[in-house]
Predict the structure.
Amino acid sequence: MALNAAIQSAVRTADKVTKSLQEEVLHQAWYGQDGFGAPMLGPAISRRAIVDRTRRKSLLMDGKLIEVRAILTFLGEIEADGAEGRDEPIDPRDILTLASDELTGPILKVEKMHDPVSGRPYMLTVQLGTTR
C-alpha cells in the first residue's frame, strides 16, 4: 500500500500549499423530505475548496443544456452525514453555496477518488451548474 500512502501524502501537501487559494463553501446536507415533499437540510457547515469558476456548457443526451458554473475541489476527508438514502459525503441533493458571492446551483456531478483501505474519498470534485 505504498501508493496509498503516497496519494494521502500528496493530497495533504496539496491542501497545505493551496490553503490561501481555497474559498469558503457553505454545505447544507440533504437528509430527507418533509410531509409535503420539500427537502430537509441540515445547518450550513463551512468547508474549504479550490474553486474553478470557468464556465462550461454541456449538452445532455435528453437535449438539456447544462452550464457548469463552478468546479469545487475538496481536498481531504469530509465526514459522512449519516442520513439514510444519501450518497456520502456529498449528495447531489445537498446545497453548496460559495460564501464570497453566494453562487449556488444544482450539483451536476460528484467525482470521488477513493482510498481503497478506508473506502473514503481522498478528495472530491463537485460541479455546480444550471439547467436551461
User: Anything to note?
Assistant: Residues 2-18 form the longest helix (17 residues).
